[in-house]
Structure formats: C-alpha cells, structure tokens
Amino acid sequence: MITVHVWHLLPFSTVIILAGLTAIPRDIPEAAAVDGAGFWRTLFGVTLPMLRPILNVAMLFGIVFTFTDMIVVYVMTAGGPYDSTQVLPSLAFFTGIQGSDLAAGAAISIFLVPLLVIVAFLMLRVAHRAEVT
Known about the structure:
Blueprint: H1 2-23, H2 27-34, H3 39-68, H4 71-76, H5 88-98, H6 102-132
Helix pairs in contact: 1-3, 2-3, 3-6, 5-6
C-alpha cells in the first residue's frame, strides 16, 4: 500500500520540487561555487535551505492526499482482512454507504476535518518559519 501511494504521489511532488528549483536564482549557487563550495556543500548549504518552504508544501499536499485517498485501499484490499488496511475515508465509506449507517460514516468523515486542519496548520507554520529565517 505504501509503495502504491508513493508511486501515485511521486510525479506531483516532482513537479512541485522542479518548480521550486527553477525559482532559485542561478547567481546564488554560482556564487557558492566561486567561493569554493563543492556539490554537496552547495546542495546542503544553499539549495535545500532555499527549497525548505517548497518541500514543506509538497509534504503537506502528500499528507493531505494520503489521508483522503481511499481508492488505493478500495481497489487493492477493500479494507483488508479484518479491516487491517482501512484508512479513515475508506472506513467512512464502508460504514456509511455499504454498512447503511450514514450517521457513523458521517462522524468518521467529520473526524478527518480537524485532524487535517491541525496538520496543515503545523506544516504551514513550519514553512513560514523557514521563510522568515
């Protein structure tokens, strides 16, 4: 399941990171090379710190997409043996729609909202701190 999620999100994350790499001015890595920094020093001292906010946004999208994606679980295992591979969206679907208990399915779905809001708030706060410093 994890491999399929990574395969599913890898192209989107790659596009976000490539967009971030094109936003870095060429002058900064060239100045680091003139100052004598090698590839690894430039990568860890210049490129990754400048990409940190973009990496946080890509991670935020990945977390939100992973938490809200029930298709992989539904297609691969349909919840698995004894609900061992359930995620909250698929559990809400199986409880609310297939189990005919709409109230419980809605309660499970609504539980996702504050959880994702908290995760998004923390990730954006970390991204904002990385931009400021």
